[in-house]
Design brief:
six-stranded parallel β-sheet; 14 helices; pyruvate-formate lyase- activating enzyme; OB fold (Dihydrolipoamide Acetyltransferase, E2P); Rossmann fold
Length: 447
């Protein structure tokens, strides 16, 4: 079999952590000699790396599989490989329910991607579900994000056991990668031109506890900063109960750690936090938010919330609304509770009506829009450092992000180049004077 003549396409769904698994599989296939193509219609075999965290993610994954399956009947596509969380979660059902699928790889088996594609290329069915708790972590990657930005997954799995979450059963126990491996990866990213390194895991702040017996996130940051000169290092998925004084000091005192933290709290009502099996209570959450703001002047805090969790009363929801108003989070995302099989909350009494969930979501997000607009209004007339991402030829305007905006989930800065006709390359830092705001975004010009 001549692998170089076989064209392989990829569809990567879900979170940034899943994207890095896709990048590892890409690297293995490239090394094996397969030809990677960007367009589905040109592919002989397509890998779909799926998410299955909540119902909407499962639906998106299945819709993508069925869309790709159309190519088997009407175009040249010879095979479909499904990997990731959906494959792991529904190991026996997918072949039965979607016979167009030719191979399945669980989350612990992405290192078998070449074997899977080899089998499919020969017209064979293939599946592998290795132990997700002992599989290799990391590996060479074909980075698919823009040259100036990359993610780095520092751990896999989760031990928190929130009652609404299927991740521990899908991804396994929490396992950190060694500091030396991560530093080597960061150096590789810098060599590619990365200006912004986004550090992720299911629980970033737990990093190191399993390997070293204590939290090591601050030490990891110092090691990366010592061995690289990447100017922006961003922390995502930080749990409030594991925010240490050492980590706060590192964010405050290290000029290369952006003054931004992603701190999902999910709720503020103590009865709901207990039912969710969240670690810590409302007093702890409020204390951590206050301490971050007291200790790190100007820090931007992003959080996520779940509304409509089983048993959430009007009083619980009102307490959440009041805290959103009180805390004035700089960035906030909300989700309606998704009832997931094989989680404890699936069997909880007092499930909330879907319409009520949506109403509560709308109320929270409307309140946050007012908060965000008010905060953005204070930026008018100020100058901000922006990492240019691209030029929009239709609108004839550049856009990028400040250090206070994470990729994909936060707002943008749109700006005209007031410094002449020389083009601004993606990945360039520029200074922008803010002239107006639009919802979550800023608009201005270079100075």
């Amino acid at each position: 079999m001549n692998r170089s003549k076989i064209k392989v396409g990829f569809v990567s769904l879900g979170c940034s952590k899943n994207l890095m698994d896709t990048e590892v599989m890409l690297a293995k296939l490239v090394k094996a000699g397969y030809q990677i193509v960007p367009e589905d219609i040109d592919a002989d075999i397509i890998i779909i790396n799926t998410c299955a965290f909540i119902e909407s993610a499962k639906k998106e994954a299945i819709d993508n599989i069925l869309d790709i399956a159309w190519l088997k009947e009407h175009r040249k596509l010879r095979g479909i490989v499904v990997t990731g969380c959906l494959a792991e979660r529904y190991q026996t059902e997918i072949f039965k329910e979607i016979p167009e699928v030719d191979a399945l790889l669980g989350v612990g088996s992405i290192h078998r991607i070449v074997k899977a594609v080899d089998a499919v290329a020969k017209g064979l069915q293939y599946s592998a579900f290795d132990d997700k708790n002992t599989c290799e972590l990391g590996g060479d990657r074909v980075v698919t994000t823009p040259d100036y930005m990359a993610y780095m997954k520092i751990a896999e799995g989760c031990d928190n056991r929130c009652t609404y979450c299927a991740i521990p059963s899908i991804r396994g126990k929490f396992r950190s990668r060694p500091i030396e491996d991560l530093v080597a990866e960061a150096k590789d990213m810098e060599a590619l031109g990365v200006k912004e390194l986004n550090i992720v895991a299911q629980d970033t702040t737990r990093y190191g506890q399993d390997l070293y017996g204590e939290y090591k996130l601050a030490e990891l940051i110092r090691a990366i900063c010592k061995e690289t000169s990447i100017p922006w290092i961003r922390l995502l998925y930080c749990y409030p109960d594991k925010i240490t004084d050492e980590l706060i000091a590192e964010i405050r005192d290290n000029d290369r750690v952006v003054k931004y933290i992603d701190l999902p709290i999910q709720h503020i009502s103590d009865p709901i936090l207990r039912r969710m099996n969240r670690h810590g209570d409302s007093a702890m959450i409020k204390s951590v938010v206050k301490k971050l703001r007291d200790e790190i002047p100007g820090i931007v805090i992003r959080t996520t919330l779940i509304v409509g969790f089983p048993g959430e009363t009007e009083e619980d929801f009102e307490a959440l609304c009041e805290y959103v108003k009180e805390a004035e989070f700089d960035r906030l995302g909300a989700f309606t509770y998704s009832r997931e099989e094989d989680t404890p909350a699936y069997d909880f009494d007092d499930q909330i009506d879907e319409n009520v969930k949506q109403e509560r979501y709308d109320i929270i997000m409307k309140e946050q829009l007012h908060i965000s607009e008010a905060k953005n209004e204070t930026m008018i007339g100020k100058r901000v450092r922006v990492l240019c991402e691209a030029f929009d030829p239709a609108a004839e305007i550049y856009y990028g992000r400040t250090e206070f905006d994470a990729p994909d989930i936060d707002g943008k800065v749109y700006f005209k180049n007031a410094l002449g006709k020389k083009k601004i390359a993606p990945g360039t830092f520029v200074t922008v004077e803010v002239e107006e705001v639009y919802d979550y975004d800023l608009i201005g010009k270079t100075v």
